[in-house]
């Protein structure tokens, strides 16, 4: 595979794997979240994406994630917004702009609506999902390329998340009750299908910045769905800050050809910055690449 095609492959998967990092939860109870302590409206995270070609990591794209206070059908809600794009240097070859929007209930982060718009060169797709808890169903509407819209109704399961809202739910989990090697179950909606997945907790590991400073991260590997991007299995590793912010710091994953990596580049609007490692970083975090 040529280098240019490999870089584009990385860019196409960057937004997905940065969100799938958190693809786990405890679905044993319908009350999925007791309290949100990790984030608040106004938070914005930016990531750099890289593709590994032999011994070289090549810059490929950027992902941004943000949180807003909003309303959905007159109910208090969070609006989560994610964008993924390739670097402008590659626009002449392959133009990529993906956007994801999710609305959730404010108190327990249960998904209410999810929208994914994919624009990759000449390929366009639009996925929409409406969560109805009165009858435990999910209504979907999907259109790919110029084909007619497809409508479907799925049977929902307790604590099922889309690939964006789950990123914020997982940051509020109590990791202290898990041991190294534990599998934590998840119910997640991906491409009009609800998947029963898990993540394997790998304990605490230290991450080092370019300046030599070190800080603790929670480390884990989710079970991936086999498809056009991943081989399946546990070929992804995630590092989440071991403080009250629980921010994804770094993600690495093997793809069908090579591997990709996402690294936190900048942040703002953190809920718990006063007594955390992020206080003195002034919005930038230079992790070793």
TrEMBL record:
Pfam families: DUF3108. Residues 1-30 form the signal peptide. Keywords: Signal. InterPro entries: DUF3108 (IPR021457). This is DUF3108 domain-containing protein.
């Amino acid at each position: 595979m040529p280098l240019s095609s490999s870089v584009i492959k990385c860019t196409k998967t960057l937004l997905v794997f940065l969100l799938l990092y958190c693809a786990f939860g405890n679905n044993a109870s319908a009350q999925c979240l007791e309290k949100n302590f990790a984030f608040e409206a106004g938070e914005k995270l930016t990531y750099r994406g890289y593709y590994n070609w032999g011994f070289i990591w090549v810059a490929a794209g950027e992902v941004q994630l943000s949180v807003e206070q909003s309303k959905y059908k007159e109910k208090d809600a969070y609006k989560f917004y994610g964008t993924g794009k390739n670097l402008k240097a590659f626009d002449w070859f392959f133009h990529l702009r993906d956007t994801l929007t999710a609305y959730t209930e404010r108190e327990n982060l249960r998904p209410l609506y999810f929208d994914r718009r994919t624009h990759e060169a000449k390929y366009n797709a639009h996925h929409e999902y409406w969560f109805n808890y009165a009858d435990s169903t999910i209504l979907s509407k999907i259109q790919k390329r110029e084909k007619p819209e497809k409508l479907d109704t799925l049977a929902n399961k307790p604590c099922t998340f889309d690939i964006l809202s789950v990123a914020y739910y997982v940051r509020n989990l109590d990791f202290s009750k898990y041991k190294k090697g534990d599998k934590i179950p998840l119910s997640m909606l991906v491409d009009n299908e609800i998947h029963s997945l898990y993540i394997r907790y790998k304990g605490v590991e230290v991450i080092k910045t370019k300046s030599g400073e070190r800080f603790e991260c929670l480390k884990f590997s989710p079970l991936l769905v086999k498809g056009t991007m991943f081989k399946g299995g546990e070929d992804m590793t995630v590092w989440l800050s071991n403080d009250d912010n629980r921010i994804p710091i770094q993600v690495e994953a093997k793809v069908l050809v090579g591997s990709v990596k996402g690294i936190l580049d900048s942040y703002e609007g953190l809920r718990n910055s006063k007594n955390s490692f992020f206080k003195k970083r002034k919005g930038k975090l230079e992790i070793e690449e």
